[in-house]
Amino acid sequence: MFRIRPRSAEAEAEAHHAGSGMLSDFILGSQDGLVNVLGILLGLASAEQSRGVILIATLAALAAETISMGAVAYTSTRARRQLYLSEQRKELWEMEHIPDAERAEVREILANWGFEGEEREKLLDQIVAKPKAMLDLMMAFELHLAPVAPSQPARSFMIVGLATAVGSVIPVLPFLATTNVLDAAIAAVVLAAAMLFAVGWYEARTTVGSVWRSGLRMLVIGLAAGFAGYLVGIAIHGRFGV
């Protein structure tokens, strides 16, 4: 029917979506890595395990979590791209074979935006006359799908994996600096709280909202999940004595 050619506006849109995706990937990886490892080490510490056991378990979890989260980010982002391309092909087929139905759908979108009468019909004719504009409109406002660049799955893998590794290593650092498990566990909680708040603060600074509210929300959610490991450790130690 027609060839879809990249335009500067499209490139700018992809860059914007890539930036948004990078932020969400960073938050996903760093928070997940930090909370999971914090939960493991608090659980082991509350079960009175040795520093060596805690280090082995948390470093193993760090490695596994980093690879796992990176792989999940890659496959999920690739799936979003495949879905977008599949739906794009369907829209192209519908535009070619059932143009009246597609025209009616564009008219409905314009009506929802408040365009009426002659103004709506004139704008409708202009959009239908530009297949690329019509396709983009349908993808965004009928299907509510955003384009995913070919490089984005690999980028998500790297960002999520790296953020997971960084988040995971934060609560482990005190156990590398001291042999006292209790002191290290307390320091791990303090470091984790600081990083969680920093991630929430950065999110609000990059998007919208109160930096303090966002930081405290991230801190509370993260520490609540991390302390679940502490409670599990106490329960298992009390029940089985391990």
Rg over alpha carbons: 25 Å
Overall geometric form: elongated
| Main beta-sheet strand count, sense and barrel state | none
How many helical elements? 9
| Residue windows where pLDDT falls under 50 for at least 5 positions | 1-13
Number of domains: 1
What is the tally of beta strands? 0
Secondary-structure element string = HHHHHHHHH
Separation of the first and last Cα atoms = 69 Å
Mean residue pLDDT: 87
What class would the helix/strand composition place it in?
A: mainly alpha
Report the helical percentage: over 70%
Q: How much beta, percentage-wise? A: under 5%
Structural write-up:
- With 242 residues, this protein is an all-alpha fold.
- It has one domain (25-237).
- Helix content is 83%, strand content 0%.
- The chain is built from 9 helices and no strands.
- It has helices spanning 8-46, 51-97, 99-112, 117-128, 131-141, 152-169, 173-177, 181-206, 211-240.
Supply database-style keywords.
9 helices, 242 residues, disordered N terminus
Task: Give a brief outline of the structure.
This protein has 9 helices and no strands.
